[in-house]
Amino acid sequence: MTRRYLIPLLSFLLAANISAQDNPAIPALRYKSNHSLTWEEAISYYRSLDEAYPEAQLLEMGMTDAGRPLHLFVISGDREFDPVKIHESGKAIILINNGIHPGEPEGIDASARFAADILENRGGMKKYLRNCVIAIIPVYNIGGALTRSQYYRINQNGPDEKGARRNTRFLDLNRDFVKQDSRDARAFADIYSFLDPDVFLDTHTTDGSDHQYTVTLIATQPERMYPGMEKFFRGKMIPELYSRMQSEHNNEMIPYVQYTERGEIKAIDGFKECLYFSTGYASLFNSFSFMTETLVYKPYPERVEGTWQFITELVRFTSENYKEMLKLRCEANRLTLTDREYVLDWEQDTTRWDLIPFRGYRYDETTTPITARKTGFYNHDKPYVDTIRYYNYFRPAITVSAPEAYIVPFAWEEVIERLHNNGVVMHQLENDTTLTVETYYIENYEHADRASQGHYFNTKVAVRPAVQEVKFLKGDYIIPLNQRSNQYIVYMLEPQGEASFFAWNFFDSFLEGQDWYSVWGFESHLKELLDRDPALRSAFEKAKTEDTRMATDPVAQLQWLYQNTPVSELEKRTMLYPVGRIMK
Ligand SMILES: [Zn+2]
User: Fold this and answer.
1) 74 pLDDT above the threshold of 90
2) Which domains does the chain have, with CATH numbers?
3) Sheet architecture: strand order including 433-447
4) I need a labelling partner for 334 at 20 to 30 A (CA). Which of 14, 278, 380, 384 fits?
């Protein structure tokens, strides 16, 4: 530690109010010359901040698929680093995640600069630390960051080298937040429950559109919030972040541009948030959450600065509104404990929209220089301003009433593990027990033809509920719905949940069915049954006289007998989803 002799140097820096980037103890950032921090450089950068400033700590939080630990950098003005005590002291915790897609590294450099700036009190920024603590994941996807090339994201305007999108197991970590196949996602979940952040930001770069803006913004789907938070989020937080980016930084933002049709951008679709995205995951724990998506065609230094500006405004806003935000979040957390109505899927409300200004480029036709392909392009020589529709309202498409508790058989180990990872409290049956529970029969589903994330995603799931007695075994897990992780539990265990364990194939083996009768064994057994039961025999004979096809078809006869004898008990378990719902 070099703290003792750094104090005079720091006082000098403070007096001069210059950036920590001028502090010789801190490595210089080189994003202005198109270099983004490598993983090693990022960690050594934060380590030097940790050594130079007592308000900063660099922690190792868990293992990743790259065989390197995930780091977390925490800035706390009063040097309290225990999140429980931080929450008790009434401060907000902001978590910033960077490099989930390491080819989109703005946030890696912007957060590094921001951390140094606030620790050095540049422009009086340190005052924000009175009301909030800032936690930064320097680089989330370490495996992707270690695989750098100038050729990744080749249409992107810098930096000189970029990381790979997927992690060491070729998983896209921004699809892995709830199913958690990667160690990375499990370490992230540990960080999330350790910090329980009030505000969350995940930084990205977008190549899906072209227009005049540098920073585009995804705000978590407001409808996912409880009403108090939603009102504040839509009515105050989002508008103020937009207006401050304009007024303080002269850097107008636009919502993430998903256009409704190819060519000139006529309208923007709101972001229907899936729970497997970072902001979706954050919504499960009632955080105010965002993704920045800077535009791929803008110069790298501008993208880093735009991200830095947004981080600054997010921290400032939180610091100025922390009391109200914490109150609303506290109320949401309280509602989570007892809420029983859940929306498993949303659809866009096409009858509602907001009008927003849009600075675009005209869409022209061209012929490409090498292959002479005819294509359209956004002509930067033809900028324009227009007012367009922004469709950012959603309505429930599938809803469910949650039970008092779920019961998950011990057998489904991967599911139990993930529930544990997400802070779910459960207890095990002490004896084999028959319970009357609500169950689901899977009536319909569609399997994806191609794997995504190593899964053949199930969609269009239809269920038929049935209340029945089910025998559970000693060791099966009862999961009461009275806890912080309620939303994770319901959305993951309801088979119609758009990102549920069922959707991600965790339960697929039950779909293959189970014991079936062998024709010979069944028929010899049937003779006994029919001899013993004259009523059954006469019903069987009657069915044959009424259905001439059946009379001549042995398989149809067996099918009739199967359905009309106690052997049909077997049928009860066919397509029966293994998770039970314990009702009041
Ligand atoms: Zn991304």
Assistant:
1) yes
2) 3-338 (3.40.630.10), 403-509 (no CATH), 519-573 (no CATH)
3) 427-428, 477-480, 405-408, 580-582, 433-447, 458-472
4) 278
